[in-house]
Design a protein that fits this description.
The protein has three helices and three strands. The chain has 134 residues and is an alpha+beta fold.
């Protein structure tokens, strides 16, 4: 390899490296977004599972959802909707909302400084208990 080829390799690397790094960090951000959405879905599912057995325990339902949302920034408190009241056989829906902020500056510029809001819900039928509901 002579001196001219070494310079050419350096220029090629300088042109290709930013594109490669943007692609790699974009894949990292996509993976983080999927993980946070999956964690929010699991948190909503755990809150709904708790609500199936204790539909009147609103703070317990929220606590069960928040305990399952480990490592993600939850926005506000989980919402609980019991359209038919807390009677056996009625549906209960728990919704958990998280905020995703990308690490990559270029992607962050497109998304905005506040990031993305990801909401996930889970609906189950009440199996035990009754009461006034939430």
């Amino acid at each position: 390899m002579n001196a001219h080829e070494r310079g050419q390799t350096l220029v090629e690397m300088a042109l290709a490296l930013p594109i490669f790094l943007l692609l790699m960090f974009g894949i990292l951000d996509l993976g983080r977004a999927v993980w946070e959405a999956s964690t929010a879905a699991e948190a909503a599912r755990q809150g709904a599972r708790y609500a199936v057995t204790a539909p009147s325990d609103c703070s317990g339902i929220r606590r069960a959802a928040l305990n399952a949302a480990v490592g993600v920034p939850v926005v506000g408190t989980p919402t609980i909707i019991e359209p038919g009241g807390a009677a056996i056989g009625q549906p209960v829906t728990v919704t958990v909302t998280v905020r995703f902020t990308p690490l990559t500056p270029l992607i962050s510029a497109f998304v905005g400084s506040n990031g993305l809001t990801l909401s996930r819900s889970s609906t189950m039928l009440i199996q035990f208990g009754s009461g006034p509901g939430c």
